[in-house]
Amino acid sequence: xxxxxxxxxxxxxxxxxxxxxxxxxxxxxxxxxxxxxxxxxxxxxxxxxxxxxxxxxxxxxxxxxxxxxxxxxxxxxxxxxxxxxxxxxxxxxxxxxxxxxxxxxxxxxxxxxxxxxxxxxxxxxxxxxxxxxxxxxxxxxxxxxxxxxxxxxxxxxxxxxxxxxxxxxxxxx
Amino acid sequence: xxxxxxxxxxxxxxxxxxxxxxxxxxxxxxxxxxxxxxxxxxxxxxxxxxxxxxxxxxxxxxxxxxxxxxxxxxxxxxxxxxxxxxxxxxxxxxxxxxxxxxxxxxxxxxxxxxxxxxxxxxxxxxxxxxxxxxxxxxxxxxxxxxxxxxxxxxxxxxxxxxxxxxxxxxxxxxxxxxxxxxxxxxxxxxxxxxxxxxxxxxxxxxxxxxxxx
Lengths: 173, 213
Hints:
The structure holds 2 protein chains of 2 kinds.
Chain A: H1 2-5, H2 9-30, H3 38-52, H4 63-81, H5 93-98, H6 102-115, H7 120-131, H8 136-143, H9 147-172
Helix pairs in contact in A: 2-3, 3-4, 7-9, 8-9
Chain B: H1 2-12, H2 21-45, H3 51-54, H4 58-81, H5 89-112, H6 118-123, H7 130-150, H8 157-176, H9 185-210
């Protein structure tokens, strides 16, 4: 997105393509069976909005939350326009809440992309200790490394990510 | 697939975003409306006749400071709410604090003056028109603020409309303060503030319909 704001059309096209696929599944998950056909319209509508309002993306904030705010607005607008009221028996209401995990998936996309920055050796270790929540001892045992070297590797990996994030922030602005 | 065509077209249309393009839009929108509203005030109402001596009196500066503070907080709120997920609670708190400060000043003035002067302080000589004139002078700003927001991405339209109205009301009262000869703090605390709340209400009601994108 940062490259796109600077006017790089090729990375912009790549980004939009990825965003379009993501948006399609986002809308499909939220539209009732009878309205699935509207998903493509909504995707295109959202892409247009993203394009014309890209000046409102703030470079120091997560791209996905900005994108989701726009997609969510477009979805609500769509519901209003067509006077769609979701009526679900209260007993089934927890299904609605449980299905609203799109943000979590997007966050995971961000996290996994960030992990790619870390040196290969530490990637897996970070994933296990910081995301799956295994203890240092467990990881040390299953990989055959000593506990202290697991700690050091994880630490180095996180540092590499942090350094890259900081560098990115300054370089692109 | 049509979506691919759209992506190709959008990528072809890509121009680099200028730094602080949003801020520039806010400046253009309010700048243009300031010109319209000031001209409207000058030719329709006229500057206060005692302008030269008024700048040496403190009520003139309190009025200016109060309306300026409301305008500034309002403009900032419009800029913030123009972003998706934009929050404006601090801006609204700032506006509430300005109103509270002026109300305190008004109560102070009332308590120091003899009771028979209370009615003139509250009602002044222009009570019938003050709020109405401020609302009228605020309209160019409301149009400008809506123009700003329509090109950006507010996601809570009623709140965005209210912010636009608050900014418009603040700026409208700022322009009006160059015409108005009233100097009583209670007068300003009530009728100026109402003149700001009127456009805010109009903006909130209209935002839902006019700010859609």
